[in-house]
Amino acid sequence: MPRLAELSGNLSAMHPAALSDEALLDACRETRTKRGGPGGQHRNKTETAVVLVHVPTGIAAEASERRSQHENRGVALKRLRLRLALEHRSKSKPSAPSALWRSRSRGQRLVISVDHVDYPALVAEALDHLQAAGADASAVAESLRVSTTQLVRLFQKSPAAWVAFNSLRAACGLLPLK
Question: What is the mean pLDDT of each run of 10 residues along the chain (178 residues)?
Fold first, then answer.
């Protein structure tokens, strides 16, 4: 089933973190390998570890903690989606909030769980806006039609997203938020 972001826009202009699982996997090179650790003979003798490399960007993620290759693929895909959101910036200048962003906002509140599949796409969109605005969170929150508190809380939900947010602020000469 296509995600809301794909229904409302050009796939080639979309951030990779906003792609459906199928479209993202199509853009990846997948390798399977063995990894040691707990899990017994089954884990050590079969190729259950999955490494995904997003070919256009070279960003990679892997998972090996499950005994099932299928489960590891899902975990690796989730990790790849977040890494893409944090490390890959869109080349085009962002304008209005995307349909996905508008679907997740209620008034000035942003309704999303860190475990939701759309979380990385929202983080990517917010980081693209922040980079274009010199990390001015208030201006970005206004342009995305949410409160500044809601925008900051979006990043606070994930330690990696919080580090990326404060790194962008530091790169723009601003002090990190606590």
Answer: 42 81 96 73 70 97 89 96 95 87 93 95 96 95 96 97 97 93
Domain with 104, as residue range(s), is 99-171
Q: Are residues 83 and 106 in the same domain?
A: no
Q: What is the pLDDT of residue 68?
A: 86
Domain with residue 73: its CATH number is: 3.30.160.20
Are the CB atoms for 139 and 174 separated by under 8 Å?
A: no
Q: Are residues 73 and 111 in the same domain?
A: no
| Amino acid identity for residue 43 in this structure | R
Residue in this structure with the two tokens 């256009």, named with its chain if needed: 56
Q: What's the structural domain count of the chain?
A: 2
- Cα separation, 103 vs 110, whole angstroms: 9
Beta bridge partners of residue 61, listed in sequence order: 52
Walk across the sheet containing 59-63 and list its strands: 28-33, 49-54, 59-63
Question: Measured over all CA atoms, what is the biggest interatomic distance in the chain, rounded to whole angstroms?
Answer: 55
Residue 161 tokens, joined: 């997203």
